[in-house]
Amino acid sequence: MTKTKNKKSMNSLYVLGFPINLFLELFIQFTSLVIPVTLFRKSLQESNIVIATIVVLLGLYIYPLTILFLSAIITRLLPKPRLGKIETQKDALKYQTLIALNTFVRRTPARWLLIFPFPGYLFYKISGTKIDSSALITSPDSLQDVYLVSIGKNSLLGWGCLVLGHYSGDGSTTFLGEVKIGNNVLIGEGATVWANVRIGDRAIVQNKSVVMPGTIIPPDEIWGGVPARKIKSIKENEESSKSSFVSPDELEIYLLELLKNNYGIQELNRDAPLLSLNLTVTDITHILRLLEKRYKISINRTCINITTFSLNEMILITEKEIKQKRLL
């Protein structure tokens, strides 16, 4: 009985929503075409080909730009459903209209203007997104519920990530909630952030992660996985990176100490082959093993030419391996 009732209410909702959505889309489309069509007609009367081309190109730019800003203004003016569970048909109709308008924008050429800072920022700002001008959204489809999202200073949303102001509990019930993204936050490529999520300042959400509804990510933490969980804090990450960093000067001092203590070599030309110092291949292999043990790395010996192998080359190869390990 309940299922039948829900089905009837959904059918009536679509019956009510369709003409509203159709009217809004047609209104935006026709209004956006007024200036481009006028410019196009003027270009036909223009004898100068260059000016005519410029006029046509201007019209082609104005068309998606008008769609963008008209949609943003209408989104701002439309009544919004209450946060939480959508229980009434009135709230469902409001939300359906907003979603349809958002989907409409993404079906038009206007969507590609969203990746540019100026039109993108103005669109989100007018639509109701609380966004700082320094924030960067790299994908046109990232914000699905624009009026429910706030983004702080210098935050970056990677390509293909989704920030959603809604979620379905059991597949038939929709819940709405705000998403608050702090300052200097990085949301990785392909990540998904659901409703009722708080992301603290300087936090990082790794690529392809899914931040579940109701999650609170504290400041200065790295989260990842499905569902997303804390991996480490930013400070821990910085300390581990710092501890694994070795400067070329430190490497040279260590190698000179090895050569001095083990082989009695006091001075040497950094570019001179080590074999010319009466070191054998076994000696060089021994030094490489000591380097691997000290810095917990694995040196690729296939790239080493023993006949020309020098202290300078040993430093460069070791430094490269240490950096590679740090990146991993």
UniProtKB/TrEMBL annotation:
Residues annotated as signal peptide: none
GO molecular function, one term: structural constituent of carboxysome shell
Domain of life from the UniProt record: Bacteria
GO cellular component, one term: carboxysome
Pfam families xrefs: Hexapep
Protein keywords: Membrane, Transmembrane, Transmembrane helix
Transmembrane segments: 12-37, 49-75
Name of the protein this chain belongs to: Acetyltransferase
Highest classification ranks of the organism: Bacteria, Bacillati, Cyanobacteriota, Cyanophyceae, Pleurocapsales
